[in-house]
Amino acid sequence: MAVARDRVVRLLMQLERATCRCPAHSNTFHKVVPSGRRETDYAFEMAASNIRYGEGVTREIGMDLQNLGARNVCVMTDANLSCLPPVKAVLESLAESGVPYQMYEGVRVEPTDGSFKDAIAFAKKGAFDAFVAVGGGSVIDTCKAANLYSCHPDADFLDFVNAPIGKGKPVTGALKPLIAVPTTAGTGSETTGVAIFDYEPLRAKTGIASRALRPTLGVVDPRHTLSMPSRVAANSGFDVLCHALESYTALPYHQRAPCPPNPLSRPAYQGSNPISDVWARHALRQVAKYMKRAVNDPEDAEARSSMHLASVFAGIGFGNAGVHLCHGMSYPIAGNVKTHKADGYNVEHPLVPHGLSVVLTAPAVFSFTAPACPERHLEAAEILGADISRAKRADAGAVLADALRHFLFELKVEDGLAAVGYQQDDVPALVRGTIPQERVTKLSPRGHSEDDLTRLFEASMKLY
């Protein structure tokens, strides 16, 4: 028996030396936790909202709230959506089930700390026992914040906001049920515990991140995306694209530091892991197959529906793995916008939509991060249509960057940061706005300095 056991041990050691060393297949995903203190994490958790998908499922929301015993519901949306079919379908369902509700239509597209506070004040005054968010990420994130602070009425606004802008306190109290009804195919906010906003005093985006914020249920009704204008579909889709690419190429979870002293301290964004990889890869394939169709033909129900699901898939992936440089750099791009008015958005304020602000740096970012995990970058490029049969590991960044530029050019994306109003003189401010985004930028698979960020912004001034 001892001889046989020794043979097995030697065989396992040989297999260990021979196996693929990339993060997805390396046995470093399965190391036994040693006793004593660790500098990096050794585990990951998967968490996501319950998701219900199907054409017409919105009509079930009234029954859901009835089943929850809700007697005073807050329905949140924005002014553009308030008269459109998705909101009408929700209100009809509530009426049919006899569920009392109050409407809040003051959500701001690309919310700010001020617009969050307005929604929070409405929620506190209403003393609601359940929430329904009908809209894109701006609506769902605003509703998450309103739910959070109405359940913690004595908290200061910055208590739960991510450090270093806020205090980053953990959410320990229970929240009310929240049903999210996404009407765009992009943010994946119906699956995540993240709420993003512009912090106007610093002209930078930040957010609140806690698993406690996750909606109780995401109701994904593919009919709702048919009302999206083409450019909204495009910019929402770019968010899905970058969610998938960033989470798939993020720092592996077992390299993230510090190791939490308590499971409660493990962040929602944990780094790439074998389960999030599955969701990210599938979302990327759906984007490659359906996004151009969804943008070019609003009546293409199959493409619009598939992108809606891709948003969910990517949301589950990045909601656990996290994003990195594209998103970290996007926040000052959106927060420092001067005069740019995005096509397809009926708003009075200057706006660089979130998905656009994210994707404008993508070619430069993935060219930069490729040396850390070239196999993953090459795989992503191949999914997007690139021929990698003769590509070398050293070519990974250039190949993926070219594939992204080709993809963006075909979808008529603005030609870099200069096309949305930025100049070379703005780069220092954009870098300064990225530095506080350490919660996401630290998940870059490749370390970076302020000089690196400067070069990435400069390289993103023009895409084509």
Structural commentary:
There is one protein chain. The strands form 2 sheets. This protein has a 6-stranded parallel β-sheet with strand order 1-8-5-4-2-3, with helices on both faces. With 464 residues, the chain is an alpha/beta fold. The protein contains 16 helices and 8 strands. Helices cover 44% and strands 8% of the residues.
Helix-strand layout with pairing:
Elements: H1 2-18, E1 50-53, H2 61-68, E2 73-76, H3 85-96, E3 101-104, H4 113-126, E4 130-135, H5 137-151, E5 178-182, E6 194-199, E7 204-209, E8 217-220, H6 230-249, H7 274-296, H8 301-321, H9 325-335, H10 354-359, H11 362-369, H12 374-383, H13 396-410, H14 427-434, H15 438-441, H16 450-459
Parallel strand pairs: 1-8, 2-3, 2-4, 4-5, 5-8
Antiparallel strand pairs: 6-7
Structural class: alpha/beta
Order of helices and strands: HEHEHEHEHEEEEHHHHHHHHHHH
> What's the total helix number?
16
Radius of gyration: 22 Å
Strand order of the largest sheet: 1-8-5-4-2-3
Query: Ranges with pLDDT <50 over ≥5 residues?
Result: 1-35
Q: Looking at the structure, what is the overall shape? A: globular
User: What does the largest sheet look like?
Assistant: 6 strands, parallel
Strand content: 5-15%
Helix content bin: 40-55%
Mean pLDDT: 91
Give the number of DSSP strands: 8
The termini sit apart by 66 Å
